[in-house]
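Example complex used in Figure S2.
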Amino acid sequence: MKNTRFDPTTLEIYRALFTSVAEEMGVALRRTAFSPNIKERRDYSCAVFDARGRVIAQGDHMPVHLGSMPMAVAAALNEIKFAPGDVVALNDPFAGGTHLPDVTLVTPVVKGTRILFYVANRAHHADIGGATPGSMGLATDIYGEGIRIPPIRLVRNGVLDGDTMRLLLANVRGNVERRGDFDAQIGSLHTGAARLLEIVERRGEREAATYATQLIDYSARLMRHTIAAIPDGVYEAEDALDDDGITDEPVRLAVRVSVRGNGAVVDFTGSAPQVTGAINAVEAITVSAVSYVFRCLVGGEVPASAGLMEPIEVIAPPGTVVNANPPASVAGGNVETSQRIVDVLFKALAQALPDRIPAASQGTMNNLTIGGIDTRNGQEFSYYETVAGGMGARPSLDGMSGVHTHMTNSLNTPAEALEYAYPLRVREYRLRRGSGGTGKQRGGDGVIREIETLVPARMSLLADRRRRGPYGLHGGADGKTGTNKINGRDIAAKSSHELKAGDRIRLETPGGGGLGS
Amino acid sequence: MGKSTGAHTGKPIRVGVDTGGTFTDFVYDQNGQIQLFKVPSTPADPSLAIRHGLEKICLKMKIQLADIEVVHGTTVGTNALLQRRGARTALITTRGFEDVLVIGRQARPELYNLNAVKPPPLVSDELRFGIAERVVASGEILQALDENELGDLVQRLKRENVESVAVSLLFSFLHPQHEERVAQALATLKIPLSLSSQILPEYREYERTSTVVINAYLQPLMGRYLSRLTENKEHSSKFSLRVMQSSGGSISAEMAAVEPVRTILSGPSGGVVGALRAARSARLENIITFDMGGTSTDVALCDKGAIRTTNEAIVAGLPVAVSVMDIHTVGAGGGSIARVDEGGSLRVGPESAGADPGPACYGRSLLPTVTDAHVVLGHFGGGGLLGGEFKLDAARAHEAIKQLASHLSRVSGKRVSVVAAAEGILSVANTNMERALRHISVERGHDPRQFALLPFGGAGGLHAVELARALRVPLVIAPPAPGALSAVGVMVADVIKDQSRTVMFANDPKQIARLGKVFADMEREAAAVLRAEGFARSQQRHERALAMRYRGQSFELEIRDTSGDIAARFHRAHRERYGYAQEQSEIEIVSARLRSFGVVPKLPVAKVSVSRGVAKPHDNAVAYFGKKLNVHVYRRDELSGNVKLKTPCIVTEYSATTLIPADTRARVDQFGNILIEL
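Predicted assembly (1195 residues):
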C-alpha cells in the first residue's frame, strides 16, 4: 500500500472527516455521561480505527491515551471475533488497558456483513472498585485496585449482556453513575459508527478505506520528516521517581534513543525492576509517553494515526517499571510514571535538539483525594483533584507558571465551586514565586494550594518530585521540589491520613527547570 | 453624552452604524425605507468615519445631528483587547487569591505545542493587590474587611498611576458590602472602578475576575471614545447614542462606558440580529447564519427565532462570562492561504493573506487563496468586487494557483490542472467550514434538515449552497444587501439589560419563595434604567430564567420558564439536551437571570417591486460548476420580486456574490430575498 498514489485534496478532506468523527464521539460522550470526571474534567478519549484495527484518527482529548488506545483495540481484536452489533469492554492493564479506572469500549462499524472500521472510546470512571474510594489508592497488587476486565462482550448483537453488566456494577461504588457512564460510552460509539457510515455512503466505501490507509501513511511521512531533522546519534539519559510510596528507594528510569535517518529506537533497558507500590506503568503507558514526546516534535496538526509510531520502535523490557508484569499495582503509572517517562525522554533528546527541547516541567500531577461525610447534609463526599505546577523553560521562552503539563490537562475546581460542593475551604491559591529554576530562560513557578477541611475526613496524596527537582538544561537551575504539609508538618508524597475538622493540607507544587546560564 | 430623546416616539431618525471592516456601514430609516451606504473606515479613530457618514445623512435629509439617534456596533473594545491597548489597571482580590487571574483553570492552551503561551494577564504582577477579608459559601463573614489597609492601598494606587481598578473578592455576590466599602475608599482616586458584585454577581472566581478585569481595562478607552464621538468641538449639537452589546441588544452610551465588557462582540451580534430579521420576512424561524469574511467565518444558530446566548465565551484567549451571543468563529475566509504541507496534504488556512497584501488577485502577492480559487473558476462572473470598483487581477490569481498546482502534481505524481487545484482549495475550505456548522448544529442536538442556511458577509454566498448540500440543509436564503446586515441588525435591535445573581438555592418551597424577591429587585432596577432611556412600562418586557443543575454537577442549564413546577421543567430540559434525567437527584438553582427589553418599534422589511416569470440575466459568463459551463450572471439590483432564476447561475451585487449551482430551484421573494431550494 505504501506507494499508492493519493490526491492531496482528498487526503486533506479525510483528515478533517475522520478527525471530526472522533470529536463528535467525544461531544456525545460528554453530553450524556453522568460523572463529573467525564463531563467536567474531560478525562476521556475517542478514536477511529480501520478494518485492520489501526488507528486513523483520535480527538485531542487526553495525551496519556494517545498511544495506549491502539493497544486496547489490538487486544480486543486478539481475543474476540467481532460480530455486527458487538461492543467489547476492557480495562485490564495487562491486556490493552492502562490503569483500572480507564475503561475502553470498542465496536465494529458494519455495512452488510463487512467490517469497515472500528470505533472506540475510553473514559476514566470515578470508581472501579478496590480497597479505596476512587480506586486510586496505594494497593500493592492489581487485585487491590479494583475489578479487572479482560476484553469481553458487553453488548452482543446489539443486545446488552445483562449478566455481565450486573457483575460489573456489583463490584464498583456508585453503580447508578457507572451504569449511566457505560450507556454514554455505548451511545458515543453509535454516534461514531453512524457518522462513518454516512461518510461511506457519501464518498464510497473504497475511497474511505483507501484514504484511511493514506492517512496512516501521511502521519508516518510527517513523523519521518520530523525524525530526519534530528541529528543521527545515540542519546542517553536517566531520571528517577522519588520512591514507590512503600520504601524510600528512588525508582530509576533510563532511556537510550538511537536516531538513524528517519527512524528512531527508544530503549528503556536499564530502568528499575517493577516495584511494590502503585507506580508501575504498563507498556501501553510507555508507548503513550513516547508518542506524546514525538508528536510534540512534529509541530502543527497531525492526525494521531498509527503512522505516527511507524518509524519509532519502543523497547520496554518486561518486568520493569515501564512494562510491569501482572500482578503489579499500576494506578499511579498512568498519572505519575508517565510524566517521568516524558521527562527522561526529553532529557535525552535535548542533547540532539538543544534549540527545541524544554527543561523538565513539574513532572507530577499531585493527585489529592479527600472524602468523608458532609455534615451540612449528612451525605458522603469525595473530592479528587490534580494540582498544576511549573512548566520547564523553553529555549526561547520562559516556562508557563501554574499549568498542567505533558500527559494531563484537566481543569481545577474553582474555590467558590469547591466550597459550595464540599465541606472544605480554600485558604490560599497562588503561584509559588521563585520555585521555577533560574537560567537564561526561567522555569515556570509552581502553585500553592492550601485546603482546610471543615469536617473529619480521610485524605490521600499521590505525588512526586519531592526529593529531586525538575531538571534544568544547559546550565539552568533545577526547579524547586514540591512540599506537602498538614498543619505545617511535612507528610509523605504518597500517603493517606485521617484529618480532623480544621486541619489544613498545604501543597506547594514543583517549579519547572531553568534553561541556559 | 446625549440624553436619549426617546427611541420609542419614532421621531428621531434612527441610524445603524457598524465599524467592523474596511468600510463603515451606515443604514438609516427614511420614512420606513431602509437606506444604506458605506464610508471608508478610519481605524486610528473610528469616530472620524462615523462623523463623516452622519453628516452625509444630515445633508441628505436636511436635519441636524440632534435629530439623529445612532445605534453603534463597535470593535473598539475587541481591538483594544486583541492589541492589548487598554488601561493601566489594578486588581484587588481577597488575600491569597491574587494569582487566580494568572492560573485560570490551570489548563495549558495547546496540548502538543511546546512553545504555547498563555495570553499575558491584563493586570501585571505588581498591580494585583490582596486585602484581608473573607466571606464564605453561606454568605457569612469569616474575616471582616480591615479598614486600616484601605488607606495604604489608596496611596499605593496613586503612586502607581493606575488608570482604572477592578475589584473581585471571593463570594462578593453573597455579600457585596466589602467591595462597596473598597469602592468608597478608592473614590478619591477619581478613576473608573469595576466591582465584580455589580458587573457579574455570579460564582466561579476566575471567570468573574477575568470579566471584571476586562471591563476595567476597557473603561477609560471606551469612555473617551464614546464622548469623543458625541462631543465634537466643531459641532455643538449632540446626538443620542446607543451601543450594540454582544448579547444582541443595545445599551445607552453611558452604560457602555461603564460596562464596556458587554460590547465585546458588538459587530458580529448585529449581523445575527439582522440575519434573523431577514429570515423572518421569509417566514423562517430556524436558521443557521453563515458570515464568511476575509480572514474568519462566524456561524450561529437561531432555533424557533431565539438566538442562543452563552456565558462561556472566550475572547482574545480570556473568558468573558457576561451574556454573549453563541457565535462560533473559525479562522477560514476568502483570504485563507492554500499550501501543500510536508506530508503532502493540501491545507487551507488558518494563515490568511488578510487585506494586505491580500489574495494574489488583489495584485500585491502571489499567495494562492480561496478568493483566487474562485477567480480562476470564474465565480465572480467576470466582474470585480464592490460593483466593479475593485478590479481583480485574474492573471495573478491564475499564476498563484498554477504554482500550487505544480506542487500538487509533484506530490501526487500525476498532473494536477489549475482548475483542479482551485476546486481542491474550495473542497478543503468547505470541509473546514462544514465542521464549524456541524459544531453549532449536530453537536448541539439540532438536525440541519430543519434549518435554512443564511449566508452573508462578502464570501458567504460563494459557499452556502455547497455547504447546505453537505449538511442536507434544504434551503438557502440569501438576503438583500448582505454586506450591511450587521448595520441593519444594530439599528433594529431592542435595548437589552441583562442581570444575574448567584443564589445557590435548593429546590424547597421556602427558598423558591425567595426567588420572587430576587427577581422583583432586579426588575425594579431594570425598569428604572429603561425608563431613564425613554421606555414606558408598556414598552418594557422582562424575561426571567434560572440556571439550574443536579447537585454535584458543575455546569448549569438555563430554564426560561420559571413558573410552576420548575423541577419538572428542569428534568425535561436535561433530558432534551443530554438524553437523560435523574429525577431522584437533588436540584440546585444556581443563578437567577433577568433579561429586560426596551422594545424598539419594528421597522417592517420593505417589499421590492415584483414582476413574474424568469428573470432576465445581465450577462453570461464561463464558469466552473464542477464542469465548464456558460452560465447566466444576474445583477442583484436588477432582480425584481417573485421572479425565478435559471440555474446554474451567478448573482453579483455591490458587496457579495452568490453561486447557485444546477439541480437547485431559485427564486426571489417579494422582499428581495433569494430562496434557493436544494
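Residues 336-429 of chain B form one domain. The first strand of chain B starts at residue 13 and ends at 18.
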